[in-house]
Design brief:
This protein has 153 residues and is mainly alpha-helical. Helix 3 packs antiparallel against helix 4 and helix 4 packs antiparallel against helix 5. The longest helix is centred in the N-terminal third of the chain and has 37 residues. The radius of gyration is 20 Å and the shape is flat.
Amino acid sequence: MNATQPTSSRSIVRYSSDRVARTAAALGTLAFLPFGLWAMIAPRSFFAQLAAFHPYNQHFVQDIGAFQLGIGAVLALALLCPGLDALSVALIGSGVGGAAHALSHMIGHDLGGTPTRDTPLFSVIALVLLVAGGLRLAAPAINGRSETGPSQH
């Protein structure tokens, strides 16, 4: 048995598992983002065509859309920006979902709940997540970290 075979086998497994993961992320992105947009933009159509769990509730359908957008954003970022660390991806992706959730509360302000409290609260949470993610993206250039982690000084 030659000394390079185990490394070669590990490389094949690593390559295959990465390929499977990237394919799954692409499929998830292609599923979550369009369905999330559909639920946000046309909640009645989404309900009638895909999610007829009665009774119809515009607010809950749009919330489902918002959260699907967040999940899709996380997958898309991880897939399209492999150099980003997990925390940056999580902050930005959940910030996208949070912003869509705040938007669903703005759209449905007349549907119940407590919009004078909920909308500002959800907006602030989304803003904090997005700003923290943006600051984290800027951090490597500011604090000397490489794209993959702290420098080894």
